[in-house]
Amino acid sequence: MMRDFLFMLIVLLGLNAPVSAQATEAGLTSIENAYSAYEAKADKVTRKALLEALDAYNGEPNTTTVNAHLRVMVDDTYAAKPRELYESATMAREHLESIANVLPQQYIEARYVAAVAHFNYRQKSAAMLELAHVQGLAKRVNSALDEDLEWATSLRYKSEAWRMAMEAYFQSAGDSFPSGEDIDAILSTYKADPATINAAADSGETTDGQLPFCAGKIVQRPKMRYPAGKAMRGMYGALLLELNFDETGQVVDPIVRASVPFEGFSEKALKTVSKWKYVAEDKKAVDVTCRLNRGNVILPMLFAIR
Question: Which of 67, 118, 161, 171 could staple 258 via S-S, CB 3.0–4.6 A?
Fold first, then answer.
């Protein structure tokens, strides 16, 4: 899950500036001792001891406690054990909540990891609602800074892709799940719902004298081939592709914004979509009353492995 995310967290484990000077001395000493034992030999015993020490701590977050929480979460991610990861990521999220404005990236990523682990562990639809919060928080960070931070943009797309995959799973299982209205209600609190985003885009839209885009469709040839194998049967996934079309409608410079849960599928997906083309309904209208070149087109795709 998110190798780039994991590398970033490991680098942060070298953080040496305290987040807060306030701490309970005895509790902090207990954490330091348990953390040292865990670093020397990370196993079930030292992990349990460290999490118990962190859980008993009632002081303010500081360098040691933040690093300890992130370290366990990172290790649990690599171990690919959803139950343990849900536990450590939830604890990290709760610990970071009071300093979310100081470490927004770590806080939002912990929420993301906890939500995905919750679904993988228990297949609970509440994970979809939590991912809507992650998506909204990431959008809020970019809006506040008036720029697209790579980590925030990535989390926004990954959260949306996971929600798509989860919804497909719950539909196939006949289970209830949050409605689109429920999701949009959460996103609207962060001004990240489709209606707000579209209104903002329309208000600032300018074509610079260019022709409008042609009505038409994407010819998806060759077809996308998804991961296969007995171990993957019954799994659901989602792709979020960003496509750009040149003057002939050919896809150029495509980007995989999210590929869940198969990140290794991205390279294959890019090779496939690079051969796709946008075709106008009325070919005679191209370059007369409309144009084919267009950028930043987000194409969502769901798939199931049977």
Answer: 161
